[in-house]
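Researcher: Structure for this, please.
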Amino acid sequence: MCVRRSLVGLTFCTCYLASYLTNKYVLSVLKFTYPTLFQGWQTLIGGLLLHVSWKLGWVEINGSSRSHVLAWLPASVLFVGIIYAGSRALSRLAIPVFLTLHNVAEVIICGYQKCFRKEKTSPAKICSALFLLAAAGCLPFNDSQFDPDGYFWALIHLLCVGDLFSVLDFPFLYFYRFHGSCCASGFLGFFLMFSTVKLKSLLAPGQCAAWIFFAKIITAGLSILLFDAVLTSATVGCLLLGALGEALLVFSERKGS
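Model: Predicted structure, C-alpha cell format:
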C-alpha cells in the first residue's frame, strides 16, 4: 500500500509538472492565447477519456437527476472562469508568481470555513493564511516583470477557485481539467485530474497536501530554468514567504488528520 501511494503521488507530480510546463509553453512561447478554444479542447478530450475510463471500469459515474445538474450550473460558470482567467494569467506571469497568487484561494477557503461554517482553525493554519496573503500582496510591488493584466486575471482566477471550493457543492472530478492548450495539454489535463482523484482517495488530507506542495515546488523551480523569468531578491523573498505559508498549511493538515 505504501508503494502504491508513493507511485500515485509521483504520478500526480509528473502530471502536474508536465501540464503546467506544456500550458506555459503554448501560452507564452507559441502565443496561443485563446481560452475559449482551450476550454473546448479540454472538455472534448477530458470527456472522451472519462468515457473510456468509465467503460474500462477505472472510474465510477453515477447517473444524476435534473435537479442535481441544475445545482451544478453556478459551479460550471465558475469553472469557465477558472479556465479563462487562469489561461490569461498564466500567459503573462511566470509560473512561480502564478502559483503564489493561486494559493490565495486557500485564504478564501479558510476565511469561509472560519466565518460562515464556524469551523475551528488551528494557529498554524491561520499563520499559513497570513503568510500566503502577505506573499501575494507584496508580489505586485516587487515583481520586475509586473503585468497589470496578468495580475488582474490571476485575481479573477483565484476568486473563482476560492468560491468554487468554499461555497458550492461541485464534483471534484471536473475541476482538474486545467487550462488546456494543445493536444498534449488536453491529455495531460485529464491525467492530472485522474491522478488527483486517486491521490485524494488513497491518502490522508495531510499527505495529499504534502504531495501537492512538492509538485508546486518542483514545477516552479524547473519553470525558472525553462522560461524567461527575472526574479529580483524582493520577488524571491515574496515567493519564499508564500512557500513558507503553504508549508505551514501542510503542517496544519497533517496535524489535524
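Researcher: Any notable elements?
Model: Residues 2-256 form one domain. The longest helix spans residues 2-29.
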